[in-house]
# Entry
Amino acid sequence: MLTLLGLAWRNLRSAGLRTGLNSFALSLGFVMIIFGQGLLEGVNRQAERMAVDYDVGGGQFWQKNYDPYDYSTLTHAHAPIPAAFQPLIDRGEAVPILVVPATVRYPGGVMPVLLKGIVPWQQVVKIPSAGLDSGNGTMPVVTGMRMAQMLGVSAGDTVQIQLLDAAGQTVEVRGRVVAVMSTPVATVDEGQLWLPLDRLAELAGLEGQATLVTVRQGYPQHKLPAVSGWVFQSPAVLLSDLRQMIGTKTVGQSVFFVVLFLLALLAIFDTQVFAIFRRRREIGTLVALGMTRGQVVALFTLEGALYGVFAALFGAVYGLPLFVYLNRHGISFPGGSSWGFALEERMYPVYSSGLIIGTTLLVLISAAFVAWLPARRIARLKPTDALRGRWG
# Structure
């Protein structure tokens, strides 16, 4: 084996520039795969963290009629807050939220919205509810940045809200925007206005009722009470749509990196085909000197595997500093909202040891395999033909 390794090293070193260019091309694919997968892992983690912080928390209890995808069910999706939840709410481990469909009148027209009542000063989710503990007679309203842009309002402006109470009577109230929150999570922003829970419940005739109860992040699920009429949705369930969306985008983004990697492997394949054709006499000489065909095939395969080793070394030279820099300083992502889920304006890729080791093994194995494919033909080559420069 050491003899074959020495011969392979000598042959690659004698190839000089060709070896360097092939290794560098393969290293580009190697680095781009790690860069892309690390970026996608960073997107995945950041999107989930944002969703958990602002919306999902440690899971939610849904009133049995609540279906966030069916607007028509919202008028019946509320019930008195069960007594079993009250200790959690009193300790700040959970927060009740009342969802009421309504319309809002603004300078540009009328828009259907969801009014969400939440307890002021709660700390379960990152909704800035402290501002709801005010109003001076008018209904305090917190809205997201996207919703504020849609309505054309800012802090201090007023909007006219209209809803149906529990008796089916139309109720109107003037709300004053006390805060505009900057959040990347569209599910707590678009089409929604946040109001104080008690005042919204009083307005809708639903005192003491809620649509869902969000549990604090990290609260042990085995300690949560089981209550009839309320269904617990774990974070895994609530994040399933987000994970599916990210998975779809991951496949699409990975195609580019796979194509780049395959092009680099194609360069190695072509080099091996050309080398086997050009070195026919050398192959015949090696076989005549006593080397078996299997050993010759192993020699060419080993040369291909060494391309993978050189590519990993090349990639480490310029890739590691790049990955360390990106991990510390992140990447500006001004168009993050266009991805369809929550992203901050600066993305921090995640480069795990498993990703780097796995990709390195992938490069080594792929390079060896691609080199082995054309080398198989050597097993069918007659030494006499090879010594004459013929190909059988």
The first strand starts at residue 60 and ends at 63.
